[in-house]
Amino acid sequence: QHISLMVWRFDYVGIALLIVASFYPPIYYGFMCQPGWAALYLSVITALGACCVAVSLLSRFQTPQWRATRAGMFAGLGLMGVIPVLHQLALNSHVWHVRAAVALIAIMGCTYL
């Protein structure tokens, strides 16, 4: 049972890292001409991901009463991607490859749910 709990925690850590890492290319390249925004969005997503990792690893948060909080944190981590995507659309919706990238990012987000 101890091994099962450890593997379960590492699984959630891997999911958090996957979500965080999937934000980096679109934000880095999408906001290449606005490095301040890129730094802000990448910092926020990294901090939220670190919180999800901490909650996944700390035994205090493994009890049933924290289940909804843990799920909400992971959902919030994924939904945080809506903000930079909408920002990118507001800046560059007239550029066809931005619209195409947003469509692909939306598909990626749906697969995470």
Write the layout of secondary structure elements.
Layout: H1 2-30, H2 35-57, H3 67-79, H4 82-92, H5 96-112
Helix pairs in contact: 1-2, 2-3, 4-5
Write up what this structure looks like:
- By secondary structure, this protein is mainly α.
- The protein has one domain.
- Helix content is 82%, strand content 0%.
- The chain has five helices and no strands.
- It has helices at residues 2-30, 35-57, 67-79, 82-92, 96-112.
- Helix 2 (35-57) packs antiparallel against helix 3 and helix 4 runs antiparallel to helix 5.
- The protein is elongated.
Keywords:
113 residues; mainly alpha; 5 helices; elongated
Helical percentage: over 70%
Secondary-structure content class: mainly alpha
Mind describing the biggest β-sheet?
A: none
Question: How large is the radius of gyration?
Answer: 16 Å
Count of separate DSSP helical elements: 5
Mean of pLDDT = 91
Our estimate of the beta-strand percent is under 5%
Pfam family, one: HlyIII
InterPro entries: AdipoR/HlyIII-related
Family: Belongs to the ADIPOR family.
Main location: membrane
Concise summary:
The chain is mostly helical.
